Amino acid sequence: MLTEKEKRFMEDIQAFLFSGGESPHASDNGVALKIASKSGRVEVVKALLDAGAGDCLAQDSEALMNASIKGYVDIAKLLLDAGANVREDNDLALRLASEAGHADMVSVLLKAGANVHAGNDISICLASKNGHTETAKVLLHFGADVRCAYPQGAHANDDEALRWALKKDHAEVLEILLDAGVSQGTPLRIGGG
Question: For residue range 118-144, what is the model confidence (pLDDT) as tens digits?
Fold first, then answer.
């Protein structure tokens, strides 16, 4: 949901792009790109990129993160093609998409070079915790480790994806994790250790 300020800003950007006139925000393409990505406005993202807004993407991929958490695959592809850093902030875009259950987005990010093992395979833990079966399948297809250790301070535990699936009663996710663990030849410990 966009704030009123963001909505007004988006209207200003659209007016600027489609009227050919001057905008009070013309020099702030990075912010415009972030807002357009957050709101799913593919045509605005394209126009901003065509106007040179992609110059900021290598250093600041918040626009990609916005698209990832919302599942806007078409926008993510545009941003990645324009140079968005898929690995920024320890693959945050991948974690956000995994946690939200956007399997198609996860696949796009991994194909673009995101690291499935970033943060001790936290993405598979997040997908498991939230019961996102298709997302978990994609992550496993790209080599996620079922023995991930979800970082919980000094008490990180192996097999955390399994623990979350079991705790949250996500039977389908638990089944694919167990199958993947057996096929990887990994001894799994679901109990106390």
Answer: 998 999 999 999 999 999 999 999 999
